[in-house]
Amino acid sequence: MQRICFVLHIKPERIEEYRERHASVWPAMLEALQNAGWKNYSLFLQPDGLLVGYFETENLAISQQKMQATAVNTEWQLQMAQYFESLPGSTADRSMVPLQEVFHLD
Which domains does the chain have, with CATH numbers? Predict the structure, then answer.
């Protein structure tokens, strides 16, 4: 199992809207994430807009490919892009770069 942690940045003036959107994630999006192998997925947000994401998956590349092949992910990513400060990969799912794990207490 791979443990994936990444950071992105939310526009400070859009933080509350971003939180509200995640209070009611579309059921089809939740199902797509589960079907693509995303497990134990969490997002953490600091007041300055730093977003830290964490999830576990058997294979990151395959999980990302499965998500990117779904219509619900395409629509979600397009709607959510407005909340981010910069997305060098064009959408949040294509812009996240996993952090290198340096320690894990098991």
Answer: 2-95 (3.30.70.100)
Question: pLDDT tens digits for 17-36?
Answer: 999 999 999 999 999 999 99
CB–CB of 8/95 below 8 Å? Answer: yes
Q: What is the CB neighbour count within 10 angstroms for residue 8? A: 20
Q: Which residues carry out catalysis?
A: 22
Residues 77, 67: contact at Cβ < 8 Å? no
Beta strands in the chain (DSSP E): 2-9, 39-45, 50-57
User: Which pTM was predicted?
Assistant: 0.91
